[in-house]
């Protein structure tokens, strides 16, 4: 997982900015902490994640550009759902966030189709 | 799926939306405000309702001013649907939205769109690299999560937001490696012809000058008249290259924050097929609206920066005016009542807008930073470069919608938000016609991503 610590929190790690509890989440299997209420994108940036996804066209690395839901460069997979705008989703305890490589995966859809085919047979 | 009715639905809980809600609720309307964030405030007052005092103090008085508006909104009786992504508004006043993974519809008598502004695209080489963000994005990180650059940062471009962010970083103890300003002497000369308006809006001007003084006193290195900006790096930004004062510069940084103004977010108004006008002073599209923000789509109003950039204080006045117009349209207030209530609002709005021609002239974004060279990516989603679009034009492509068919430009997940203005101007420039003649993408709902499963869940 490429990391480059570009951002930091102004608040010490053991003190949540709003006095809210810290939440544990995972990025590509690595455990991270972020204050409750914080967006997933802010949490990843503050934890040194530098690449959120790679593009479907050239595989170029991308990370948040606008932080307000307009650029869609912060797309990640959250709890098995691809194409989530991480700047608009709040962190939650135990959340599993994954890099989105290229096009969103259609594994889930394939599985459903395979299951239906099995029923037909 | 729920099907709810209300008198007035307001999309967006920034200064315009909150102000519209307060007025409409006070006049007895049932009001629902839908917003994507978890709290009121919009981007300008982002997270104002739960920001600790320490952060409010750091961000400064203009941010703190949002607190009283948010408090009045909370006490207004308007219903606030947080975390609600509106993905379609129909001409009949149906507001379709996604909340907690479920789709719902709100049927409103009148709709007031307060979807505000977004950063103007800043297409320079390397602007897609991780570590290159808009100044607005960096400010949202600060406002919503106390997150700041870990290493010395470079701010580049022009406009009040860039200097305000610099001022906030100085106060937060964030080192600024350089402020690379694209404003040139020519811009100052052009802006001087609007000095009368600026003097009338002297409070804004004074504020701006005091921000710059703080930055200079803090020893932030300034480069003015910067041209040929390019971000360098492989997996992320490593440096900013530019020329200024006849010299080539290269400044290393792991975080580059770009800004050259904000533009109206017109996704809703385009998707409603409302009329739009190209604004040559602000270099953006404005929806065509009357003095009450009413579009040529009956029953739909727009207020705030979505009408054209005027700032938070103007947006609040426009929100109140739109609410009055909507209440009048519903037959809930008389023409005389509406006009009497509007009078002080119009006077205040005029005051707030007086500085605009000066600011628009002084911080007019450079042509090279709007209509880039051939090798620069224009459509970030589909990675379409400016040269490809010029090639489409040479092959007979007349406008943005045809550009989609030629090379998928504007067809990625952002639906043209990041490339639309650039593509319009680029094609106009290549064809030698006006942006108005070239037009814009045909925006279609859903304007926010919604899965088939979520859509299928709707009835």
In short:
The complex is a heterodimer of chains A (121) and B (459). Chain A is an alpha/beta fold and 121 residues long.
Describe the 3D structure.
Chain A is built from 2 helices and 9 strands, in the order βββαββββββα. Chain A is an alpha/beta fold and 121 residues long. Chain A has a single domain, classed as Roll (Ubiquitin-like (UB roll)), CATH 3.10.20.440. In chain A, strand 6 and strand 7 form a beta hairpin. The longest helix of chain A has 14 residues. The radius of gyration of chain A is 16 Å and the shape is globular. In chain B, strands 1, 2, 3, 4, 5, 6 and 20 form a 7-stranded mixed β-sheet that branches. A 5-stranded parallel β-sheet of chain B has the order 8-16-10-11-12. The radius of gyration of chain B is 22 Å and the shape is globular. Helix content of chain B is 39%, strand content 23%. Classes of the chains: A alpha/beta (121), B alpha/beta (459). Strand 1 of chain A pairs antiparallel with strand 9 of chain B.
Task: Annotate the secondary structure layout.
The complex is a heterodimer of chains A (121) and B (459).
Chain A: E1 7-9, E2 22-27, E3 30-35, H1 40-46, E4 53-54, E5 61-62, E6 75-78, E7 81-85, E8 95-98, E9 100-101, H2 107-120
Parallel strand pairs in A: 2-8, 4-9
Antiparallel strand pairs in A: 2-3, 4-5, 6-7, 6-8
Chain B: E1 3-11, H1 15-26, E2 31-34, H2 53-59, H3 61-64, H4 66-74, E3 79-81, E4 85-89, E5 94-99, E6 102-113, E7 117-119, E8 132-134, H5 135-145, E9 147-149, E10 153-158, H6 160-172, E11 176-181, H7 185-192, H8 195-200, H9 202-217, E12 222-223, E13 227-233, E14 237-244, E15 247-252, E16 256-260, E17 262-264, H10 267-271, E18 276-279, E19 284-287, E20 300-302, H11 312-329, H12 335-353, H13 356-362, H14 367-370, E21 377-379, E22 384-385, H15 386-394, H16 400-407, H17 420-431, H18 435-438, H19 452-456
Parallel strand pairs in B: 1-2, 1-6, 2-3, 6-20, 8-16, 10-11, 10-16, 11-12
Antiparallel strand pairs in B: 4-5, 5-6, 7-17, 13-14, 14-15, 18-19, 21-22
Helix pairs in contact in B: 1-4, 1-11, 6-9, 7-13, 11-12, 15-17
């Amino acid at each position: 997982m490429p990391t480059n610590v570009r951002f930091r929190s102004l608040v010490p790690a053991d003190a949540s900015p709003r006095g809210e509890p810290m939440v544990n989440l995972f990025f590509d299997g690595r455990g991270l902490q972020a204050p409750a209420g914080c967006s997933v994108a802010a949490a990843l940036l503050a934890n040194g994640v530098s690449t959120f996804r790679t593009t479907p066209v050239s595989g170029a690395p991308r990370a948040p550009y606008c932080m307000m839901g307009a650029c869609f460069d912060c797309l990640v997979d959250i709890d098995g759902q691809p194409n989530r705008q991480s700047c608009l989703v709040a962190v939650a305890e135990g959340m599993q966030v994954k890099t989105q490589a290229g096009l969103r995966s259609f594994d889930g859809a394939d599985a459903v189709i395979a299951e239906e085919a099995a029923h037909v047979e | 799926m729920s099907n709810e009715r209300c008198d007035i639905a307001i999309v967006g809980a920034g200064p315009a939306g909150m102000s519209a809600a307060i007025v409409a609720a006070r006049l007895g309307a049932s009001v629902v405000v839908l917003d994507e964030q978890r709290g009121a405030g919009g981007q300008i007052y982002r997270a104002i309702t739960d920001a600790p005092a320490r952060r409010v103090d750091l961000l400064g008085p203009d941010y703190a001013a949002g607190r009283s508006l948010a408090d009045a909104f909370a006490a207004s009786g308007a219903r606030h649907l947080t975390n609600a992504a509106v993905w379609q508004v129909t001409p009949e006043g149906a507001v379709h939205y996604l909340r907690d993974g479920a789709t719902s519809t709100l049927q409103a008598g009148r709709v007031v769109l307060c979807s505000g502004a977004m950063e103007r695209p800043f297409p320079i080489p390397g602007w897609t690299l991780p570590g290159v963000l808009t100044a607005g994005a960096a400010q949202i990180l600060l406002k919503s999560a106390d997150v700041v650059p870990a290493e010395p940062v470079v701010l580049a471009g022009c406009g009040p937001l860039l200097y305000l962010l610099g001022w906030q970083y100085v106060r937060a103890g964030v080192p600024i490696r350089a402020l690379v300003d694209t404003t040139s002497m020519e811009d100052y000369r052009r802006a001087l012809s609007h000095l009368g308006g600026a003097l009338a809006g002297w409070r804004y001007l004074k504020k701006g000058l005091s921000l710059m003084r703080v930055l200079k006193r803090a020893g932030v290195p300034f480069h003015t008249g910067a041209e040929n900006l390019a971000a360098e790096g492989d997996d992320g930004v490593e440096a900013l290259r530019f020329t200024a004062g006849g010299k080539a510069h290269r400044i290393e940084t792991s975080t580059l924050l770009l800004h050259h103004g904000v533009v109206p977010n017109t996704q809703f108004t385009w998707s409603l097929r409302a009329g739009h006008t190209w604004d040559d002073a602000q270099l953006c599209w404005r929806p065509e609206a009357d003095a009450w923000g009413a579009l040529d789509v009956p029953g739909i109003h727009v207020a705030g920066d979505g009408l054209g950039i005027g700032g938070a204080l103007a947006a609040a006045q426009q929100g109140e005016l739109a609410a009055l117009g909507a209440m009048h349209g519903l037959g809930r207030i008389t023409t005389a009542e509406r006009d009497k209530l509007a009078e002080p609002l119009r006077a205040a709005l005029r005051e707030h807008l007086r500085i605009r021609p000066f600011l628009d002239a002084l911080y007019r974004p450079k042509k090279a930073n709007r209509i880039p060279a051939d090798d620069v990516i224009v459509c970030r989603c589909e990675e379409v470069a400016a040269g490809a679009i010029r090639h489409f034009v040479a092959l007979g492509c007349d406008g943005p919608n045809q550009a989609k068919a030629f090379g998928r430009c504007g067809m990625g997940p952002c639906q043209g938000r990041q490339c639309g203005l650039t593509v319009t101007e680029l094609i106009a420039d290549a064809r030698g016609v006006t942006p108005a003649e070239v037009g814009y993408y045909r925006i279609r709902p859903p304007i926010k991503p919604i899965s088939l499963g979520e859509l299928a869940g709707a009835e």
